[in-house]
Amino acid sequence: MAISDQELSHLRSQGFRLTPQRLAIVRALSQAHDHLTPGEVYRQVHGELPGMTEATVYRTLNFLTEQGLVLVAHVGHGQLVYEIAGHNHHHLICQACGQMQEIDHAELAAFFEQLMDRTGFQVDTAHATFFGFCPECKQEETS
Amino acid sequence: MAISDQELSHLRSQGFRLTPQRLAIVRALSQAHDHLTPGEVYRQVHGELPGMTEATVYRTLNFLTEQGLVLVAHVGHGQLVYEIAGHNHHHLICQACGQMQEIDHAELAAFFEQLMDRTGFQVDTAHATFFGFCPECKQEETS
DNA sequence: TCCTTTATTGCATACACTTGCAATAATGAG
DNA sequence: CTCATTATTGCAAGTGTATGCAATAAAGGA
């Protein structure tokens, strides 16, 4: 999954700028086949652009999230993780062992519809995280 | 909504201790008819127990959450908020104006059932947060 | 009531994240 | 290609949150 040149140019036409820092962060997220924490992004990108600061990483991740190019999820306690937007999915996380399972958006689509009808909200389907116990840990809990 | 003496005594029987700090924090959350951030809890409780530190507030909120007496939700960007557990509900938040709407758990019950069947997870119904645009802001977005 | 055990606190410190401001540099215009 | 505009960065400082460790004090037993 990656962000197209077209999408990036679109940012430029909105008055935003494509700096080396932003491009490096987009590249890092595109190459990662997993979620990255801000710290992980920083470590990866810092090799390429030694001048880069953590503040820029945080600002850029927020920026990309606002622009809809990146998804943010809270996957555990307080820690936020980021990934390139693309296939629409959600997460189910085991509170005991930390195991993470993806839930395709299709499974929630009907529910989102219902929610929008009921509340009048335009529900943003970007991301939801659910917590629980995976089959193995569930067993240990109850035994 | 409040936490019963019975629930508190149950903690004691598990080897946990009911310290003035914990009781003060439980009281503060019980009296609040809204979510509180850790900072808000600290400011309220500090008047009563001047010795109390922020570290204790964070530790206690985590503790109460683990014990299921308190619910935690991320309601906005990065900031976590806490409230007394009781009526099971979720939140729908407007990304533009910050307005928050409660969603009763009953509306999600069927979906949770389905999710548990499909994944084998014991889904913890504690809390889910959805983001979107409220009716008013939705209009401004599209116009 | 006093003692013992050990969960919990406070302090200090460290990590995670945000923000104001002056300096830098990406864009578009000329 | 050069210049002006102004979005973005780096720095430094500030807020929010977590944690190791010694001191404190809650709870149960004598």
Q: Mean of residue pLDDT of chain A?
A: 86
Distance between the termini of chain A: 42 Å
Q: Write out the strand line-up for the largest beta sheet of chain A, numbering strands in chain order.
A: 4-3-6
Counted beta strands of chain A: 6
Largest sheet of chain A: 3 strands, mixed
Helix percentage of chain A = 40-55%
Quaternary form? homodimer
Low-confidence stretches of chain A: none
Number of H- or I-type helical stretches of chain A: 6
Rough outline of chain A: globular
| Biggest chain pair interface | A-B, 34 and 34 residues
Radius of gyration of chain A: 18 Å
Strand composition percent of chain A: 15-25%
User: What structural category do the secondary elements of chain A indicate?
Assistant: alpha+beta
N-to-C order of helices and strands of chain A: HHHHEEEEHEEH
Keywords:
homodimer; 143 residues; alpha+beta; 3-stranded mixed β-sheet; two-stranded antiparallel sheet; 6 helices; DNA-binding
Structure in a nutshell:
Chain A is built from 6 helices and 6 strands, in the order H-H-H-H-E-E-E-E-H-E-E-H. Chain A has 143 residues and is of the alpha+beta class. In chain A, the strands form 2 sheets. A 3-stranded mixed sheet of chain A has the order 4-3-6. A two-stranded antiparallel sheet of chain A has the order 1-2.
